[in-house]
Amino acid sequence: MRERDTKSILARADRESGCEFVTTLQYSSPARGGWSIVRMAMQVPESYQLFVGPSACMRHIMLSSMELKIDDRISWLPIREADIVSGSYEQLILENADELLGKMDPQPRVLMIFVTCIDNLLGTDHEVFLGPLNEKYPDTRTIVCFMNPITGDGPAPPAVTIQDTIYSLTGDAEQKDRAVNFIGSNLAIERDNELIGWLGQNGIESRHISQYKTFDEFREMGKSTLNIVTSPLALYAAKQMKLRKGIDYGYFPVSYSFDEIERDAAGVCEKLGIPAPDFSKEKQKAEGKILETLKSLAGRPVSIDYAATYRPFGLARLLLEYGFRVDTIFSSECLPVEREDMNWILKNHRGVKVLQPEHFSMPGQFAGSKQHLCIGFEAAYFTGSPHVVPLAADGGHYGYAGIISMMEKMRRECGHEYDLEQLVKDSGLVV
Hints:
single chain, alpha/beta, 17 helices, 14% strand, oxidoreductase activity, Nitrogenase/oxidoreductase component 1 domain-containing protein, Nase/OxRdtase_comp1
């Protein structure tokens, strides 16, 4: 399940905008994918996973876990038709999870039992196995995680529910630390980020799940004062953390708009009760890097795909405003926060193509576009260019530092050629 495949999070663009996204027979390119739900959940330290489902459902997860060398933290329980018909599904999970935990030394702090679509269809009573397991193994918290693509069009698709599951494991504390959590990004925000620096100057620690080695250390995220939500996938989790743990949150997503970066930084500081920063030097540096990159590209066409960044239209607008030759935007959806940018592009740069990468008509539309600079794997696949900025879900980009990092990567990759097939494998993408 790709983390972006959810209509409840990414809204359809308005038909009158001139760019209509359609639902039809889909093509899945070999370069399509992102972090799997399993990989996201493995960020919880000292956790182990038991994946339960039909063999066909777990095949791609199994192969990708081997490629990423994380298969030592996951076991597999294949479910047959006979197990479903006989009514032994819950008991089968209980017996196998019990056997697994009984043999593990040391035992994990968390056992995540992943279930698939059939679990929803069966109406499983999870307490049949959760109750006995948590009673018998009190030092291991056993929970259920959902890998069910049939919920992808609903309010709680897997990529959203897994964020809630992950952060439900954090600790509870009435007394909060002077700290903020960055949630929603797979990678930590780069440490040279200007907002992180400003928070540090004001005595506020910045936290991200990737920095923790032990489960007890990870639980300190529940003591933070504020959740800074950097992608829409974590909004539901942030709302639940406010209800359960009393942690305030703000939706301050990755942006390529100078005005939005300034506004969001001021919003974070207002919530924390600290002075708003002056990032004029950082803004000037970012503008300088943009102009350097514009000169370096010398009119080379640029293609952007929505798996690389949650803000493909915002990034395209920034580049177009400074004179870059943005050729194509590959996007299946348009975030509500991106509507203005998309409409601006359609109005002022009619030559920019907006294409749905999963549309059945996409194969064969491009051939031999070797000079494109492609931001994202699917853009590279469809253009056929070896010049790729290998970015997924914005990486660690954020704020002016994120723009600077993007410009540096664009300049570097102009002179570098990749074997896309190998690059995709090395990146561990999972459909």
